[in-house]
Design brief:
It is a single chain. The protein is mostly beta strands. The chain has two domains: 91 residues, Immunoglobulins (Immunoglobulin-like, Sandwich); 89 residues, Immunoglobulin-like (Sandwich), CATH 2.60.40. Helix content is 12%, strand content 44%. The protein is built from one helix and 19 strands. The strands form four sheets. Strands 2, 5, 6, 8, 9 and 10 form a six-stranded mixed β-sheet that branches. The protein is flat, with a radius of gyration of 31 Å. The termini are far apart. 22% of the residues are buried.
Length: 240
């Protein structure tokens, strides 16, 4: 009888030890790998200079056609580097630069409109993009500047519309350093570039008539009170 009791107690002890080891093993599987780096996503940078919709007159004038501007933004939380994008709004060409600081010197054309934004990066793959600002890089002394090229909004580039569509509302945004935009000439048609001026308006939208099976192209010329003007990109859309 004493042997039987001893046997039963031994079995209970062995079972308890196995359960304890098993539980400890499962808990270890849930622990994070100490060698795996945990990164926090960066925040978006706040742009400082050149200012939004401004005339930039601060810079080193290298030649009559080029100057060097120091782009500046505030440090972004958890960012270890930044990528600066500077776009010539006349040619639509973009320069980009990678830097570990919150400023970057860039040589750009004078008497030319630009846009710029900054992408914050960390040691991982996370990124965050700032707002996009426009500015006019000043040239020789002048009392008036051409407007920024209109930003086409809708329909979006290469958008496809339903075959039942018969009328489309073209929409765009306009801006100007001098804040003296007078009107917009809208060119629209099935050829690229469009040569048919459909309307002149002081609004930032207009309706056009379309038919199924066609691809349409459109562009907007912005005109100010001094008859300075600028031409937007050409956008296209199709009607199925």
């Amino acid at each position: 009888m004493k042997k039987l009791i001893t046997y039963i107690l031994g079995c209970i002890l062995i079972y308890s030890i196995n359960q304890s080891c098993s539980s400890g093993s499962n808990g270890g599987d849930d622990m994070p790998d100490p060698g795996q780096e945990q990164t926090t996503p960066p925040s978006s940078a706040n742009l400082v200079f050149p200012e939004q919709n401004s005339e930039c007159t601060t810079g080193s004038n290298l030649t009559s056609t080029e100057s060097t501007i120091v782009f500046n933004w505030n440090d972004a939380d958890n960012a270890t580097s930044y990528q600066l994008f500077v776009k010539n709004l006349n040619t639509q060409s973009t320069q980009n630069y990678i830097t570990n600081s919150s400023e970057q010197s860039v040589t750009i054309l004078r008497s030319t409109p630009y846009s710029w934004y900054v992408v914050s990066k960390n040691s991982g793959t996370e990124t965050a993009q700032s707002a996009t600002w426009k500015f006019y890089n000043a040239g020789e002394a002048t009392s008036s500047y051409a407007p920024f090229p209109a930003e086409l909004v809708a329909p979006t580039l290469a958008q496809s519309l339903a075959s039942s569509t018969t009328s489309v509302n073209l929409q765009w945004n306009g801006s100007d350093v001098d804040d003296d935009i007078k009107e917009y000439d809208v060119f629209f048609g099935t050829e690229s570039p469009p040569t048919n001026k459909t309307t002149t308006t002081d609004n930032t939208n207009t309706n056009v008539t379309v038919t199924s099976g066609n691809t349409y192209y459109w562009t907007v010329v912005t005109i100010d009170d001094n008859n300075n003007n600028s031409e937007s990109q050409i956008f296209s859309f199709s009607v199925e």
